[in-house]
Amino acid sequence: MTTSTSLPGSTPNAAPLLAPASGIPRGPDSRAPRGPNGKRGVSRSTSYSLGNLIVTIILSLGAIVMLGPLVWTFSTSLKTQDAIFALPPQWIPDPMVWENYLRVWSAGPLLSGIRNSLIVAGTVTVIGSVTSAVAAFAFAKLRMPFKNAIFLMLLAGLMIPFPTIMIPQFMVFAEIGWVDTLLPLIVPGLFGNIIMIFFLKQYLENVPDSIIEAAKLDGASYLQIFFRLIFPAIRPAMAAQFILWFMAVWNDYLAPIIYLNTPEKQTLQLVIASFNAQYASQTDYPLIMAASFIALLPVLIVFIIFQRQIIESVALTGGKG
Amino acid sequence: MSTEVHRSTPPSSTAQPLKPRRSLLHKREHKVALAFIAIPLLGFLLFTLYPLLYSVYASFTAWNGLAAPKFNGIDNYIKMWNDPYFAKAMWNTFFMMIGIPIGLVLSMALALGLNRKMRGTTFFRTVYYVPVISSIAAIAIMWQWAYNGDFGLVNQVLDIFGIQGPNWLANKDTVKPALIIMATWKGLGYSMLLYLAALQSVPRYLYEAAALDGAGTWAQFRHITLPMVRPVTFFLVVTSIIGGSQIFIEINIMTPLGGPEFSSASIVWYIWRQAFNNLQMGYASSMSIVLGLIIFVITVIQFRLNRRNQFSID
Amino acid sequence: MKRSRLIAASVAMIATTGLLLSGCSAGAADTGEKQLTFMFRGGEDEKAAYTTAIKAFEEANDVKVKIISTTADDYATKLKAAIAGKQIPDVFYIAQGDIQAYVNNGVVLDITEYVEDSETLDLDNIWEYGVDSYRFDGSLVGEGAIYALPKDVGPFSFGYNKTMFEAAGIPLPDVDVPLTLEEFVDISKQLTKDVDGDGELDQWGTGLNVQWSLQSFAWSNGADFLNKDRTKVTVDTPEFAEALQWFADLSNVEGVTPSTAQAQTLDTYQRWMSGQIAFFPVGPWDVSTYADLDFDWDLIPYPAGKTGESATWVGSLGIAVGSTTEDPELSAKLVEYLSADETAQQTLVDAGVQIPNLKDMADTWVADSTTKPANKQEFLDIVNDYGRALPANNTYNAEWYDELFTNIQPVLDGKQTAADYLKEAQPKMQAFLDDANAQAGIG
Lengths: 321, 314, 443
Prior knowledge:
The complex is a heterotrimer of chains A (321), B (314) and C (443).
Chain A: H1 14-17, H2 45-77, H3 99-107, H4 110-141, H5 147-156, H6 162-175, H7 183-190, H8 194-204, H9 209-217, H10 222-250, H11 254-259, H12 268-280, H13 285-318
Helix pairs in contact in A: 2-13, 3-13, 4-7, 4-8, 4-10, 4-12, 8-10, 10-13, 12-13
Chain B: H1 2-6, H2 19-58, E1 61-62, E2 70-71, H3 75-82, H4 84-95, H5 99-114, H6 121-133, H7 136-146, H8 153-160, H9 175-200, H10 204-212, H11 217-228, H12 230-245, H13 249-254, H14 267-276, H15 281-308
Helix pairs in contact in B: 3-15, 4-14, 5-9, 6-9, 12-15, 14-15
Chain C: H1 2-24, E1 35-41, H2 44-61, E2 64-70, H3 72-84, E3 91-95, H4 99-104, H5 112-116, H6 128-132, E4 135-136, E5 145-146, E6 148-155, E7 157-161, H7 162-168, H8 181-191, E8 204-206, H9 210-220, H10 238-252, H11 260-263, H12 267-273, E9 277-282, H13 287-290, E10 297-300, E11 312-321, H14 328-340, H15 342-350, H16 359-367, H17 377-386, E12 387-388, H18 399-406, H19 409-412, H20 418-440
Parallel strand pairs in C: 1-2, 1-3, 8-9, 11-12
Antiparallel strand pairs in C: 3-11, 4-5, 6-11, 7-9, 7-10
Helix pairs in contact in C: 2-14, 2-15, 9-10, 18-20
């Protein structure tokens, strides 16, 4: 929640870019959270602390609910097969076996699954983010006839259920020979993502037009404006959307199912799904849970690393969008 | 559309160029804008429009997915009108959207809680966000197990309170609430974060002024906080409705046969089943078109309503 | 300045895409070798068994076989997508119920000529039931040209917990004469009790899933789902209502099963495995899992209704040749291998995945008394005598059949009588059946 991202030197109007566009003067401690009744001050600190305590308790209970299923997954993955059906169910496995995490690597093509998922998710998000950002800039800041109609049309593309467009799409890709390659999963994404565009467009509303007009009059080209003014400003927002898009692609399941044949080409989610099908009938739930947990780890790690960026970007975007 | 109205900045105060120069300036801007928009537009035309149009065509055919489609006029649409399962699936889908306002209220409450100055907010933020980033397939498998009548987590917890939990996924009255709970659980962290950010950028002086005028906590919340976070609410409602209408993977994994007495079958699940199990791809396409149109209309209405409620601070 | 930047950016993107293209489609390089694609679904055991057979096939015929495997749930989707995208595999699994649709739409090849005169295959040594399941003469499945060979036949048999019977001092059921429905209920009642004295039942007579067990009781009571030429749904007969009512009464009136809700989850299966259930169905795919159970069990004929004769269903999965294959003869040969190659069959049988496709192998397998169950002959009897196809397997699609089970819960809960329900359901089912038949071009 800071104005720490300063713009590269070109325009003198750097600072106000990140302040609310309406130019409200802000006190030095305006960012400090205030209590729900808007009051601060020493005299209310006891009731405030009490409030904090209550809130913390409630949040902790909620956190248990949030984490419960995930902890259960982890716990199940450490059990022996019979222990799953023990009544009353055990939270701490006894005996605790870690072998599932070893078995998991040979039980299916997990490693190549991770590699393929990385290739697909990485390429799509990196390139697609740039194309989306450029388009968001145009939608938000540039003049063009029918701009809004086009935006609504792109948004409408989300409204038809995937199973319906899946088959015609498959027919097209089959015609050009892209079946059993990663291409049908990558190429469409390179052209941008309408959710990301929507989000960045909202955010760019906060960037005053006057700055862009000034830059234009200074003779800057639109690309220069984009790279020098816009891109740095929306970087946090892009970071957030980048992560969310990465996760969406990483977790995608339907498209890989129909396009990928060879086990070595399959993405991680397919491998997990086949685990579930294969081993569920043998009630080898610990193995399935171990595989599911491993699948969660990469995105969890990415999130923990990037979460500061997300908070900041969401903060900057949520204000006036 | 929202773009025009959101502009709360004063119009550019630089001198207006002479008429011919301005149109030239704008024309150049049009071209650049088109160039920038061209990429997603091209993607849309290549990868979405053709399948979309094909689906529209297919909705007027009797197509079994094996051979070429055969035109049959509006037979599919008539069939849909008379199909009780279509109506039931639509009902199920929209019923499960009840989770959306519940989720928004809960995440707003959470955000208010995390907005306080206290320790552990970072930890809680992470914890509440974890379900969001997990794969829906893994989550569905997990929850399916959690809802198990005998060994599941949910009933174990209820057992602590002496409540005999039902067999959630096998009982037609509890299966939809069960799915709603799971969906809300998954989406809570995301909405919470957005609200948190919005809350933290509401100017303090507004609250101070209101307090001076004698407004109580609730009044401040209603008249300052809520309106100021409306843009986030808008984004969330629009995207949640679009997403909620497409709910499919959870249903397919947790209740593979559409639930007890078809009570958890979502419309996309039913479309899927018709297309791939019953060799009715033409019919499935027509249902998809109808769904898409309904959602489109709802979205446009939302955008219009939103525009009318815009305001800005001067 | 900006234009060249734009051009530069576009060129960069095209170059990247080009690199991706070349990198990713490297697998398409052909060496001029013959190649067949084989699409199937299955677990690790099947994959392993087939891989060996396929290797032998590849060597003997100088061909490369590309194996595409999916999970059971995704198979239908993937196959349909492949067909729509004109990528029909050369050889693939086909469900019994799909034969009609696939033949009518020209998806599978008629392989009668290859199969009947084959040197590697003796058609008479494969179960008639299996081969006939994939015959189609244009209107009815079961006769006519052969479009696939069976991957397996899966007789759905009935098992009982020997240890439980012996502990309770009840005489073991006869392996040849089926129990009557009354006897069955009687024994179940005796075995439904509270074993550890804690006031709650922990042992039951049985716990059946209506979707897989109703057929047996309906058929053995003289009822059926369809008429002979599959144009009429016949579930509203008194015999059928009787069977369904009896089934529901097992839970509600006789009280010999765990509660109905529980019967729909994994639980009765788990309870059987923990030794809490006296009677439970057994398919060949269960044999390997059940081998480790800590009680003794065996197979008996299904209890019989009015007709006095047992009945049950036999599942099957076939292997067909895609109509767009470039080498029909070779593809047909692969089908024969997968269906009848002895090594592959032996591996599958040893892994407990299925019963042998080959009659002579089956006889040897039955005679082997070291493996469970003792009464393996029961499986063969089902295939040879009293087994039938699941009702929806011979119709264009299963919509009419699914309809029966979608709203059947109230009957199982005792809230509606079977007769009433069937009266309501029959017209709906008939409508779906008519629809399906219209699409199939018959009736």
